[in-house]
Design brief:
Elements: H1 3-25, H2 30-33, E1 54-61, E2 66-74, E3 81-83, E4 89-90, H3 94-102, E5 111-114, H4 120-123, E6 142-147, E7 153-162, E8 169-173, E9 180-184, E10 210-223, E11 226-240, E12 243-251, E13 262-263, E14 271-272, H5 274-285, E15 291-294, E16 304-305, H6 307-311, H7 313-320, E17 324-328, E18 335-339, E19 343-348, E20 352-364, H8 368-373, E21 379-389, H9 406-413, H10 415-438, H11 440-455, H12 461-482, H13 489-504, H14 508-515, H15 519-527, H16 529-539, H17 542-550, H18 554-567, H19 573-578, H20 589-632, E22 635-640, H21 641-647, E23 655-656
Antiparallel strand pairs: 1-2, 1-6, 2-3, 3-4, 5-9, 6-7, 7-8, 8-9, 10-11, 10-19, 11-12, 12-13, 14-23, 15-22, 16-18, 17-18, 19-20, 20-21, 21-22
């Protein structure tokens, strides 16, 4: 092969190689270059938020140069959520975890902002790795990582700064990769605030269930090797309906706090500060905590310290530094924990008593949650909480005595008393009959005078007045006789009155009217004996009889009298039917014994039911207390100083001037929706 052919072959091979190289090196389109392109999800395999069982969020404190870690985890066996970064404090994380995981599920890329590593700090997506950071470094993002039960990573993302002028858009980056993406997400659910992940109702108490509250205002502190105690007062308040009432106020001798307290009455010119008490009640209903610290191992659920705890210097120091002091109580060598700033005991309807002990100030909180929710400057205070059964709320029921003999049964039934009453009723009835008989003659004379007054009204005016006076006296005597407690005297008195009226108004018209009474009238007379008695008494008055006769209403006035005269024996019918029943004294000894056994069984059942009801309520309270103490036992709680001030009442805050509680009426609960106003005159 000559040189020309060789050269041509080389050129041909070079052309082929150039074509192949150009084909291989030619850039592809953006859509196929990277799987993380606009419109693509960042985490294609993370589709079910319920598979997430662990969340870890790492942040960087630029001023301190330290990393902060917040973690929530679900136990594989129990299924309970805890916060490992807070020593395993229980978390209320079912819904919160679901919402947090959903923030990354289906998260799509809107744009690729940059692939240059040098832009990471400006976009706030520098990975928080302590070995790569120093105090003062800026642009560090939040590293959020979700894992499943097998601790396999489901999603991990560095969340940076928000995009300017683009609401809801944020710069994000995957750890270990340079590209920075623009996404739209709500990162507020990825909170590191402790209180966002726990039960927000610490006491699980409703203010409407509060029955009483006891404020123990004292202070305790270390003085040398002993605890110095200064007692101010103890006040007991109770809810009287919807209002507070003070049941007791005890004041202590400032020079001798162990001396017996003095009972103090409420000042006559003051009223109870219900505004302050309601503020305390509302704070209990909505008691928030900003952090927790685990208590020493030796502390039991009822906040009593055992000997092992007292001998553990580290545990005792843990208590002392937080304002809680174990002191001897009782002859059995027990130790009770006193608090630096007193106690508040609150009892609810269930018979459960909450005991809140207030410790020392914690100081500036270590996390941002405490700074935001604490008092000015993040000042917070330690709190110990326990629950116990208030035995005073479960008094022994009033049990009915069980008769053991027939005599005791007779005494319980009041048989002896009834016999004595019956013996006393007989002379009373006889006396009533004698009084009624003595009134017959004057009544007849009054009737004759009334008849004469009809013929000669002008001449007999004085006589009518005298007759009226005599009839009034007769009515008084009759009423006194009928008012006797004897039941057997009543039918006899009715008979006498009925016969008396027949004599007083015993004219032909009265008799005819009585005979012509219809059955409905007879029923009315039987059903309303009191009305008939009143009508009979009125008819016995001569002046009224004359007036009625003059007005031509004599027949209507006399009609009840006729009915009474006819139906008087029927009144005794029920008494005759009742007489068929045997009284207790008429029973045989065997029947009395059967009655005794029946009464014993009935009373025992009723007493057992009352005892069982109390036992059930008491057991329910004990179970509830056990559940509450299982939550409270292991923790010091940390509350904002503002909440502490709402729960404490100073001595000079107990009473106010009259009307001071109504000086500033509270508005509607929860405020009004935006754009709405109170109606004119509301609250005036």
């Amino acid at each position: 092969m000559n040189e020309g052919k060789k050269t041509g072959a080389f050129w041909a091979a070079a052309a082929v190689m150039l074509a192949v190289g150009l084909f291989v090196a030619w850039p592809t389109s953006t859509q196929t270059e990277s799987p993380y392109s606009p419109g693509k999800p960042l985490f294609e395999k993370f589709k079910d938020p319920l598979t997430a069982s662990n969340l870890k969020i790492v942040t960087f404190d630029e001023e301190q140069g330290q990393l902060g870690t917040f973690e929530v985890r679900r136990d594989a066996e129990s299924g309970q959520w805890t916060i490992p970064s807070r020593k395993g404090y229980p978390a209320d994380a079912v819904e919160q975890m679901r919402d947090a995981a959903n923030a990354l599920v289906g998260l799509n890329i809107l744009d690729v902002q940059t692939e240059n590593q040098g832009d990471h700090a400006a976009l706030g997506v520098v990975e928080p790795k302590l070995e790569d950071l120093q105090v003062g470094d800026t642009g560090v993002g939040r590293l959020v990582t979700f894992k499943d039960e097998s601790q396999q990573t489901l999603a991990s993302l560095i969340i940076g700064n928000p995009v300017k002028n683009e609401e809801g858009k944020i710069y994000v980056r995957k750890p270990g990769q340079d590209p920075v993406y623009v996404v739209k997400m709500d990162d507020s659910v990825l909170s590191t605030k402790f209180q966002d992940w726990i039960e927000d109702d610490l006491l699980q108490m409703s203010s409407i269930d509060i029955k009483e509250a006891v404020v123990k205002d004292y202070s305790a502190s270390i003085s040398g090797r002993s605890v110095a105690l200064e007692r101010n007062y103890t006040a007991k308040f109770a809810m009287d309906g919807a209002e507070w009432a003070m049941k007791e106020l005890l004041e202590y001798n400032s020079e001798n706090p162990l001396a017996e307290p003095k009972l103090v009455e409420q000042p006559a010119d003051k009223e109870l500060n219900t505004t302050k008490l309601n503020e305390m009640k509302n704070a209990l209903d909505d008691l928030k905590i900003v952090d927790v610290v685990r208590k020493p191992e030796g502390m039991s659920a009822n906040l009593r310290a055992d000997k092992d705890l007292i001998s553990d210097n580290e545990a005792v120091q843990s208590l002392y530094t937080r304002g809680f002091f174990p002191v001897g109580s009782g002859a059995e060598g027990e130790f009770e924990v006193l608090s630096a700033n007193g106690e508040l005991n609150v009892t609810v309807d269930e018979g459960i008593e909450y005991v809140l002990r207030f410790g020392d100030v914690q100081g500036l909180s270590d996390d941002t949650a405490g700074e935001e929710d604490g008092d000015v400057g993040g000042v917070n205070r330690y709190l110990l909480v326990t629950a116990r059964v208030n035995e005073d709320q479960f008094p022994a029921p009033d049990l009915q005595p069980v008769p053991q003999t027939i005599e005791e049964l007779a005494a319980m039934l009041g048989v002896g008393e009834e016999d004595a009453e019956v013996e006393g009723e007989e002379p009373a009835a006889a006396e009533a009959e004698m009084k009624e008989e003595t009134t017959d003659a004057p009544a007849e004379e009054s009737a004759e005078e009334a008849a004469e007054a009809e013929d000669q009204p002008e001449a007999a005016e004085a006589e009518m007045k005298e007759a009226e006076a005599e009839a009034t006296e007769t009515e008084t005597e009759t009423d006194e006789a009928s008012a006797e407690p004897a039941e057997e005297a009543e039918p006899a008195a009715e008979k006498v009155e009925a016969s008396e009226e027949v004599e007083v108004t015993g004219e032909g018209e009265a008799s005819g009217q009585g005979q012509g009474a219809n059955p409905q009238d007879e029923d009315d007379a039987t059903d309303e004996p009191s009305a008939e008695s009143d009508a009979q008494t009125e008819n016995a008055t001569p002046a009224e009889a004359a007036t009625e006769e003059a007005a031509a209403d004599e027949e209507m006035a006399l009609e009840p009298a006729g009915d009474n005269a006819t139906e008087a024996p029927a009144v005794e019918a029920p008494a005759e039917e009742e007489s068929d029943e045997l009284t207790f004294n008429e029973l045989t000894d065997e029947e009395k014994q059967e009655r005794l056994e029946a009464e014993q069984e009935k009373i025992l059942k009723a007493n057992t039911r009352l005892l069982d009801e109390r036992k059930d309520r008491l057991n329910a309270a004990k179970r509830r207390v056990a559940d509450l103490n299982a939550r409270f036992a292991d923790w010091y709680y940390i509350i904002p100083e503002a909440t502490y001030r709402q729960l404490r009442i100073n001595r000079d805050e107990l009473f106010v001037e009259p009307g001071a509680n109504n000086a500033a009426p509270a508005g509607p609960p929860g405020g009004l929706p935006p754009g709405m106003q109170l109606p004119a005159g509301f609250g005036n």
